[in-house]
Amino acid sequence: MVQKRKKPPVTKIDAPVPPKRRGRPRAYQPDVALGKALDLFRKDGFAATSLDDLSAATGMNRPSLYGAFGDKRELYIKSYRRYRDDARAAMANIFRDELPIRQRLGRIYAVALDIYLSGEAGPRGCFTVMTAASEAVADPDIRALVLEGLTEMDKAFAACFRRAREKGELSNSADPAVLAQLASATIHTIAIRARAQTPRAELEAIVNGAIDVMVGA
Length: 217
What we know:
By secondary structure, this protein is an all-alpha fold. The protein has helices at 30-44, 51-58, 62-69, 72-96, 101-116, 127-135, 140-166, 176-195, 200-215. Helix 6 runs antiparallel to helix 7 and helix 7 (140-166) crosses helix 8. The N and C termini lie far apart (124 Å).
């Protein structure tokens, strides 16, 4: 009896396997993560904010934090730049629009108070005054950013007072540069008092008194 030969089994050709991706895709939004870091630095400052704190706040582990933002100092500086950009954007139209000087100053300080009194855990004040100024003592890069911010604020206020003088709202003897420094000093004062949880009504009274001094009662 002749035995039939069995046909060899047909082997299936596997589909080509796509190459594995290297590394993990980003599971975070950089802008959101930077905002979380900014909130933490504003609340606790540089020294009191640990990498573990930043990791918990942003939802990113340490390697991811380093990969996205650099070390803690670099993240602090990027947070400070973000704070300044946000504050500048919030006040840009007020400085640019043609308004009576008293109304312009009132609106600038109202926006500043909105910023300084914000915070889920309580008023956070101003990043520049409350934390960056302290770090500026030992860090030349942060010091340069602080001085740049202060100068920018003085120049913006000086331009406001210069326009007001040209329109006859201020006397010809009014010095826009001196008035600008007084206006900036008022910003710093309400920032510190806001962090100390001074009620908004009291801060507004300080602002109104300062405006009376600068432009006349």
